[in-house]
């Protein structure tokens, strides 16, 4: 903000970075869960190895939790006085 950024740009930057990391984690998790389900399909009797609904619901819940938990730090970062930060450094 000391270089000319507006508060809502700082808010969006922090929010986007935290949710972006979560989305990468969700993609890696879904890929690993799918691979593990295929590997374990021979050991399961009478149960489907891949459940798409569960993966979608868990992914949406994780993304929602990440969005909710990143709003607080994003608002805090947008409210910081630029001169206070520069003095601290």
Give a quick rundown of the structure.
This protein is mostly helical.
Largest sheet: none
Beta content comes to: under 5%
Uncertain parts: none
Q: Using only CA atoms, what is the Rg?
A: 20 Å
What is the first-to-last residue Cα distance?
A: 15 Å
Mean pLDDT: 83
Query: Which oligomerization state do the chains in this entry correspond to?
Result: single chain
What is the overall shape?
rod-shaped
Structure description:
This protein is mainly alpha-helical. The protein has three helices and no strands. The model has no long low-confidence stretch (mean pLDDT 83).
Give the arrangement of secondary structure elements.
Elements lengths: L6 H34 L11 H28 L2 H7 L1
Helix pairs in contact: 1-2
Question: Could you list some keywords that capture this structure?
Answer:
89 residues; mainly alpha
